[in-house]
Specification:
It is built from 13 helices and 19 strands. With 424 residues, it is α/β, with parallel strands linked by helices. The chain folds into three domains: 6-126, Rossmann fold (3-Layer(aba) Sandwich), CATH 3.40.50.12160; 137-322, tm_1862 like domain (pyruvate-formate lyase- activating enzyme, Alpha-Beta Horseshoe), CATH 3.80.30.20; 383-423.
């Protein structure tokens, strides 16, 4: 009897990557591979990369070197956004055996059948304009919460972003198929689904980029509300110009969609938003937050912000910081701008010194801590519903309220994957 080959995965980047890694794992397990932890010895190591920041590129190289030291005879496969953007650069990393671009990652089994440890890496990639299919994906880690991919790619041309070059044109699954996936996930015991995509609000384009049945993101959330067994949904991230009044109002009245929005801002300065080629201005963002808080005063709102974008003066940064101070939001994800090849921003001459970028990042991370503390303080004494996850660390477990307040408590098996009324 042939011995099973083993495979281990490591994911860099976003929730979308986690959903795809989980799907790749299931594909290989169904084809006879034994899944191992990344820290264990495995016959094959798969790294699913990100390329949003320079650090993600460096981390990929570090992981390959670690595998080389630990298990030099093992096969190393690199896929994901970095693999699509810079396949030749990755192929030159000592120890890499296979580079899979966007069109080939879900054909991983076929590629592994013929792969042997060699002196040079095999590259299986194509021009991103040729990528038009949609591969449904979802994560299955602790059976509590899952990331369900419903959309991929992006048609926007933000001046700092490489994602359209890494993932191609905007395209989506159908509402019908997503509902079937949600029903299947409900049968496994999953309580919460996080809807993920590159540009969720642009949902509705079919795999070839064509509008199918004029489906919209609003149609999707309405359909998911009626799936039996799934008790909670979250919208992972949605552009402010695509977050419609009807979606906000639906969430405000929903029994299943959590009062929690993550809305990228990137800058509180209209000048910088223009340089970034964002499709809104700060006034629209403020209007979105105002409507949400009017309908759902308890709602959590998160924002993405980039600091140190080319041309961002101290006055522009102060404008952003003051805008965020005044906004009734709950937390920030702060990114330090890093130059990405083949983007318009990389060609802009007014670069902000790296030490200034880092200092601005620190200031906004401190603001985020203050915002989350205030969001939590407002709800102290209230009883809210918490979904506890199965992880146990040092005898503790964690879960999140409907409005995204993290709760830590002593581990109890009976709490795992249960929604508990909890006094904050």
């Amino acid at each position: 009897m042939e011995e099973k080959r083993s495979v281990a995965f490591h994911t860099l980047g976003c929730k979308l990557n986690f959903s795809e890694t989980s799907t790749l794992s299931r594909i290989l397990e169904n084809d006879g591979f034994e899944k191992k932890n990344f820290t264990d010895h495995a016959d094959v190591y798969v790294i699913n990369t990100c390329s949003v920041t320079d650090n993600a590129d460096k981390e990929c190289r570090m992981l390959v070197r670690r595998i080389q030291r630990k298990s030099p005879a093992s096969l190393v496969v690199v896929t994901g956004c970095y693999a699509q953007l810079k396949p030749k650069e990755i192929a030159e990393i000592p120890g890499v055996d296979l580079v899979l671009g966007a069109a080939e990652k879900f054909n991983i089994t076929e590629h592994l059948k013929e792969l042997t440890k060699g002196n040079s890496a095999k590259i299986c990639s194509c021009d991103i304009t040729e990528v038009s299919g949609f591969n449904s994906s979802y994560s299955m880690n602790d059976r509590t919460r899952t990331f369900l991919k419903v959309q991929d790619g992006c048609d926007y041309n933000c001046s700092f972003c490489t994602i359209p070059m890494a993932r191609g044109k905007s395209r989506s699954d159908s509402v019908e198929n997503i509902v079937k996936n949600a029903e299947q996930l409900a049968l496994t015991g999953v309580k919460e689904i996080v809807l993920t995509g590159v540009n969720l609000g642009d949902f509705g384009r079919g795999p070839e980029g064509i509008k199918k049945h004029e489906e919209s993101f609003f149609d999707l959330v309405k359909a998911l509300e009626n799936v039996p067994g799934i008790e909670r949904y979250r919208i992972s991230s949605i552009e402010p110009n695509l977050l419609t009044n009807e979606v906000i109002e639906f969430v405000g009245n929903s029994k299943k969609f959590m009062p929690h929005f993550h809305i990228p801002l990137q800058s509180g300065s209209n000048v910088i938003l223009g340089l970034m080629r964002r499709r809104y201005r700060r006034e629209l963002y403020a209007d979105r937050v105002k409507l949400i808080k009017t309908l759902m005063p308890h709602c959590a709102i998160g924002a993405d912000v980039i600091v140190g974008f080319p041309g961002e003066t101290e006055e522009h940064f102060t404008e952003t910081a003051d805008f965020l101070h005044a906004l009734d939001i709950s937390y920030l994800h702060v990114f330090t701008y890093s130059e990405r090849p083949n983007t318009l921003a990389a060609e802009m001459l007014e670069a902000v010194p790296v030490n200034v970028r880092n200092e601005r990042n620190k200031k906004l991370r401190n603001l985020s801590y203050m915002k989350m503390s205030e969001h939590t303080r407002r709800h102290v004494g209230e009883t809210r519903k918490v979904l506890f996850e199965s992880h146990s660390k040092n005898g503790m477990m964690e879960g999140y309220t409907d409005n995204y307040i993290k709760i830590n408590t002593h581990y109890k098996q009976e709490y795992v994957n249960q929604i508990i009324d909890w006094t904050i």
